[in-house]
Amino acid sequence: MSSEAAFEVIGWRDGHIIALDQTALPHDIRMLHLTTVGELVDAIGRLAIRGAPVLGAAGALGVALAARQAEQDGWDAARLDAAVKQIAEARPTAVNLRREAEAAAAVIPQGAAAVAAAALATVATTVAASHQMSERGARYLRERCGPAPLRVETHCNTGSLACLGWGTALGVIRALNNSEALAHVLVDETRPLLQGARLTCWELGQLAIEHYLLADAAGPFLISQGLVDAVVVGADRVAANGDVANKIGTYSLALAAQQARIPFVVVVPESTIDPATPDGGQITVERRAEDEVTHVLGVPAAPDGTRALNYAFDITPAALVTAIITESRVIEP
Ligand code: MRU
């Protein structure tokens, strides 16, 4: 992999969106060509396009697509507004999706080409921010944890696939590795959709970074055994009081990290911090289809008819967070 991702995660070609289908990884590299808002919303819903900053890019590009469809097919303002709303609400927890869709919608009066240009500027900003937060986060951990190479645990997928550029938490891991300050990475598999096993292990493999895959339930135990120096994760939304919404399973790592007195660090772009959400209790936690839990990669794992509760995210209280690191600052409670 070069200094950037060796693959295009999401982009704009000839008036439509192209995106790497993240449901097909790690076994297939398949590009999606999305020419309608309906196709984009479907791709977001089934997590072919996912990860908070990439959802932000998808929101902006989606509005560019809607504006183009409106010009070509003569949509009236109400139909275009409905399309923007459909994009903004395709998933509820990652604030980046709504924020970037609404920012792109503000450009609609200038025409579809201007919306596409604004969306591409959002993509470029996302990439630049990822490098800045990666370097800042690596510096913070080196200063806080000392000179020995670090054993870092991470959850879900927060690399190029989720964030463009280097990523957020995985970007910090990459920057640590570049400065020979990383021993290895402990990767939570991230049930039910296995973003850790399928996507993070794939990205770390491409980067030749040493890593070990863990069953999610093993994470807190390994922390308690002194086998982890720091937990580093991303987030889908940070409330104004510092509460953090991230992939289900994050909260138990934060509790274990506090008990073991190791840093629990959250790495996000500023656009993931939502001043309009006062605290974690106000964050809508996405609930997804039951069969994602009753099945593993499409294969039934529970008796027919078993009911499941599929909360896709959890909320980690600010009190458990050692630091939130963004492209422009370190926030310590
Ligand atoms: O459901 P997903 O795969 O979109 O969830 C992604 C995560 O929870 C990531 O940790 C989060 O978006 C942070 S990526 C910076």
In short:
The chain has 333 residues and is α/β, with parallel strands linked by helices. The protein contains 11 helices and 16 strands.
Description:
The protein has 333 residues and is α/β, with parallel strands linked by helices. The protein folds into 2 domains: 116 residues, Up-down Bundle (Four Helix Bundle (Hemerythrin (Met), subunit A)); 201 residues, 3-Layer(aba) Sandwich (Rossmann fold). It is 41% helix and 18% strand. The chain is built from 11 helices and 16 strands. The strands form 4 sheets. A 7-stranded mixed beta sheet has the order 6-5-4-7-10-15-16. A 4-stranded mixed beta sheet has the order 11-8-9-14, with helices on one face. Strand 12 and strand 13 form a beta hairpin. Helix 5 packs across helix 7. It is globular.
Q: Average pLDDT, to the nearest integer? A: 96
Helix content: 40-55%
Query: Outline, from the CA principal axes?
Result: globular
Question: What's the count of strands?
Answer: 16
Biggest β-sheet, characterized? 7 strands, mixed
Q: At the third CATH level, what is the topology name of the largest domain?
A: Rossmann fold
* Tally of domains: 2
- What is the CATH class of the largest domain? Alpha Beta
SSE map:
Elements: E1 10-13, E2 16-20, E3 31-34, H1 37-45, H2 52-73, H3 77-88, H4 95-105, H5 112-145, E4 150-154, H6 160-163, H7 169-178, E5 182-188, H8 195-206, E6 211-214, H9 219-224, E7 230-233, E8 237-239, E9 244-247, H10 250-260, E10 264-267, E11 273-274, H11 291-294, E12 295-296, E13 299-300, E14 313-316, E15 323-325, E16 330-331
Parallel strand pairs: 4-5, 4-7, 5-6, 7-10, 8-11, 10-15
Antiparallel strand pairs: 1-2, 2-3, 8-9, 9-14, 12-13, 15-16
Helix pairs in contact: 2-3, 2-4, 2-5, 3-4, 5-7
